[in-house]
């Protein structure tokens, strides 16, 4: 196999052609094509996914875990860096979450606690004037009637970006993007090191590094999963070096960026053993609480809780099981069952995470991570495309490849933004989940099992 020397497999000119067309596609998606132009989006994204599969086909078709001595494919790693740098100066085209990042950051940079202020009640006040919160920025917010839900590490990055660029929206966006670029570089480096330690081909990190969804949603659209994934992998790397406290601190920083890693606590308790698991999760929890201390007031928990509750039990986007259960509940009871459905599925997710950890947590933690995240995304009310990037990161350390397919077809959910008011295309969502589920079942049938 020769270390999967993909340059010989693909050909130099073929790679150069792929690189040139990919640069053009990323440039158009990053700078020109609005999210309302779904036809152009899906065409360009489809090309990027085809090129991604073509370049990485040797690894996808002939997996071999005993290749730690394989040479890193520097052409593709450099291409991954180039694609991200290409997006450095773009405004996010596919998500307007960045407006809330800037809003919260300007509050924090001017000494105000972002967890205490509802944007809809703040506009036109002395606080808004002092923090340079304009009407134009307010109009860009997608949830002006909800308190912020972003944890303290994210808020610190928002505040730093606002301090560096207090007046320019584009400057603020670039300042938000730089930490993401650094985190992505750190993530790929950690993936290579962790793969080599596990005696696996370091080029498997390219499954994440070159993935179009990862590049466009994290670097392009500024989503904090990039920071979260980096800190989770850093926690694993530190743990492998017996730096217990530092590892717990890194995991706390991941939770302080996005709350998602909390769902992995059952795995930690099982994999580390009850005594060490309790100590580790307890220390991680303590560090997480310390991160919130600068923001603590009597209203903090209530405000975050209210917004998280609405998000988890009321909102809905690109969900699979949730709308079916909700509709069934409405048919049976004749009333709105959104909250009850959301709560029930959340409980089922926690029970499922515990069951998966109990079944495979001792010997196959990578498998449990991928399956737990899959379960969570199948049962949750909202599955934005960038959520799947964490699954892409997990698949690097397993033989599961269905997350890569999901990363491709999840783009169909952007069909909701073709017109206003926004509305989901249920047929395309059905296609997304049928393709994803069908491929996952096919993988299981042919006995391609996930491994650590």
Distance between the termini: 22 Å
Structural class: mainly alpha
The percent of residues in helical segments reads 55-70%
Largest sheet: none
Which spans of ≥5 residues are poorly predicted at pLDDT below 50? 1-9, 448-452
Helical run tally = 23
Radius of gyration: 22 Å
Strand content: under 5%
Shape: globular
Fill in the keyword field for this structure.
single chain; 452 residues; 23 helices; globular
Please tell me about this protein's structure.
The protein contains 23 helices and no strands. The protein is an all-alpha fold. The longest helix is centred in the middle third of the chain and has 29 residues. The N terminus and C terminus are likely disordered.
Please summarize what this structure is.
This protein is mostly helical and 452 residues long. Helices cover 66% and strands 0% of the residues.
Strand-helix topology:
Layout: H1 6-10, H2 12-31, H3 38-61, H4 74-86, H5 97-109, H6 119-122, H7 126-130, H8 135-139, H9 152-164, H10 169-197, H11 206-209, H12 212-220, H13 225-240, H14 244-255, H15 265-271, H16 274-292, H17 300-313, H18 321-333, H19 338-360, H20 365-379, H21 389-395, H22 402-409, H23 426-445
């Amino acid at each position: 196999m020769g270390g999967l020397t993909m340059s010989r497999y693909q050909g130099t000119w073929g790679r150069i052609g792929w690189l040139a067309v990919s640069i053009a596609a990323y440039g158009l998606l990053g700078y020109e094509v609005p999210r309302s132009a779904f036809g152009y989006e899906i065409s360009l994204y489809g090309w990027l996914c085809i090129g991604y599969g073509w370049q990485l086909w040797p690894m996808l078709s002939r997996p071999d875990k005993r290749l730690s001595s394989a040479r890193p494919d520097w052409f593709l790693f450099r291409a991954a860096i180039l694609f991200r740098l290409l997006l450095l100066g773009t405004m996010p085209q596919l998500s307007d979450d960045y407006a809330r990042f800037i809003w919260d950051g300007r509050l924090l940079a001017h000494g105000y606690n972002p967890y205490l202020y509802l944007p809809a009640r703040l506009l036109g006040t002395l606080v808004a004037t002092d923090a340079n919160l304009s009407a134009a920025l307010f109009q860009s917010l997608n949830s002006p009637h909800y308190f912020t839900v972003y944890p303290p590490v994210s808020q610190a990055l928002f505040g730093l970006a606002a301090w560096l660029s207090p007046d320019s929206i584009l400057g603020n966006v670039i300042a938000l993007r730089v930490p993401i670029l650094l985190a992505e570089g750190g993530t790929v480096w950690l993936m290579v090191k962790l793969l080599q330690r596990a005696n696996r081909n370091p080029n498997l990190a390219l499954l994440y590094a070159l993935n179009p969804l990862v590049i466009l949603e994290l670097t392009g659209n500024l989503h904090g999963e990039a920071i979260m994934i980096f800190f989770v992998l850093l926690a694993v790397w530190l743990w492998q070096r017996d730096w217990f406290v530092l590892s717990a601190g890194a995991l706390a920083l991941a939770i302080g960026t996005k709350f998602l890693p909390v769902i992995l606590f059952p795995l930690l308790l099982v994999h580390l053993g009850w005594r060490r698991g309790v100590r580790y999760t307890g220390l991680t929890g303590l560090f997480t609480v310390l991160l919130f201390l600068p923001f603590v007031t009597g209203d903090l928990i209530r405000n975050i809780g209210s917004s998280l509750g609405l998000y988890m039990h009321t909102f809905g986007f690109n969900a699979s099981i949730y709308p079916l259960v909700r509709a069934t509940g409405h048919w049976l009871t004749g009333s709105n069952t959104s909250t009850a459905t959301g709560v029930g599925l959340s409980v089922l997710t926690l029970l499922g995470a515990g069951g998966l950890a109990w079944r495979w947590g001792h010997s196959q933690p990578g498998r449990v991570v991928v399956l737990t995240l899959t379960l969570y995304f199948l049962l949750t009310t909202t599955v934005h495309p960038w959520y799947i990037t964490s699954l892409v990161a997990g698949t690097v350390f397993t033989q599961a490849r269905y997350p890569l397919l999901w990363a491709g077809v999840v783009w169909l959910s952007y069909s909701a933004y073709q017109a206003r008011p926004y509305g989901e295309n249920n047929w395309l969502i059905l296609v997304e989940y049928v393709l994803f589920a069908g491929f996952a079942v096919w993988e299981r049938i042919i006995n391609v099992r996930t491994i650590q």
